[in-house]
Amino acid sequence: MKLIVSVAAISAALLLPLAAFAQSSAPLTRAEVRQQVIELENAGYNPSTSDSTAYPENIQAAQNRLNAAKAGGGYGGVVDGSVSSGAGRRFYQGDDSQ
Fold this sequence. Notes:
By secondary structure, the protein is mainly α. The protein has helices spanning 2-15, 30-42, 55-71. Keywords: Signal. InterPro entries: DUF4148.
C-alpha cells in the first residue's frame, strides 16, 4: 500500500510541471481570422479560385510574401555607401601641405 501511494505521489510530482508548458493563448477571434484572410488576399492569395490542385503552393507562397513584407517593414531601405573616420592623415604644426 505504501508503494502505491509513493508511486502516485512521485508520478503527480513529475507530471505537475507539464501543466505549466501548456499553451495559454486564447483561440483566434472572428475578427482576427478575417484580418488574416484580408492580409493573405493583399499578398496575392485568392481563396475563390477554382484551381484546387495548387492550393498548398498558392497559400504558402502568399504566406511567404506576407512574412517577407513584415520582416522588411522596418525603418527604411538599406543605404549603400562607406564610412570613414577622418583619422587617415594627421596634420602637424607647421605642415603647410593641407
